[in-house]
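[INFO] parsing input record for ABC transporter ATP-binding protein
[DEBUG] input buffer:
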Amino acid sequence: MSTEETPVIELRNVHKRFEHRPDLAQRILALAGRPIDRRTVHAVNGVDLAIRRGEVLGLVGESGCGKSTLGRVVAGLHPPTEGELLFKGQHADKLRGAERLAYILGVQMIFQDPQASLNPRQRVRQILGEALKVHGLSPRAEIPARVDRALSEVGLDADYRERFPHQISGGQRQRIGIARALMVSPSFMVCDEPVAALDVSIQAQIINLFMDLREQHGFTYLFISHDLGVVRHISDRVAIMYLGKIVEISQASEIFARANHPYTQALLAEVPDVSRRGRTFIPIKGEIPSPLAPPSGCTFHPRCPHAMPVCKEQAPPLDLIAPGHWSACHLNRV
Ligand SMILES: Nc1ncnc2c1ncn2[C@@H]1O[C@H](COP(=O)(O)OP(=O)(O)OP(=O)(O)O)[C@@H](O)[C@H]1O
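[DEBUG] output buffer:
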């Protein structure tokens, strides 16, 4: 395989498990002697995924299905519990020194809540310059000019340099988060619900900024969102996640025109479509089960309108059902 074809990121049978985090009520009950629930949360449950250079891969699914955890695994913030993570064809856990730094800086994460991810006690120039200083990536004298360049790339003027995060609006704070990522010249961005906390009008501006940056720098994006409208707008391919697994993946146009998996079909049916007034709104039956006790077989079977006996017993693998289109459903096997 030539370097051109090597995916930027490749996951091979990646799992991420956590010890269950007790909530406040459970911690209070534990003080009274009630045993703490020590079951394991299987947040990512055997994901195979290759992300190609320059593509925008949208990752969609309901809250709690493991999207953020998968994004953090890709960005190197969570080591996989099991399976392999490759960056440009090299095993991420074997990278050392400059190669490890190239991965850690090359894959930047943009978070939903820029307020929480920006140090409230630092001015914008300090927030933006920090990684360059820590890693000795630039002579100190050159940092202010690089800060101004990054601010200009995200559409902010140099006046923002001296401000603190609380002196900036939500949309502008997200621009600062993106400028901070740009400072270390990444090639890949994991965007975890980056516009979910913003007003709709601001959302469009930030999405346009992501697309402009992609054009200028050739970035690759893993774009995590529960909003199919946003994902449809920007993605080349879309992966649908359910209880820690990818259940369908294909070109975005294919997913929206010919969704195969009953879960994807249900998600699409949930998107209110203003252009088709009077369309019936079909919510997905029931709630997403807890990853502490996932259902047997196909984990979607308790909510699936087409469930068959085999669905309760065997987990369907991802099958190739059309060129570039994979879906994990027993209906494709009967
Ligand atoms: N550090 C952690 N410790 C324990 N459990 C965790 C941890 N991080 C995530 N989880 C659990 O893993 C599961 C998947 O969470 P994750 O945040 O990845 O889902 P998500 O699809 O991104 O949801 P959301 O959209 O609500 O952020 C959840 O049950 C969550 O409680």
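[INFO] Residues 274-281 have pLDDT under 50 and may be disordered.
[INFO] shutting down worker
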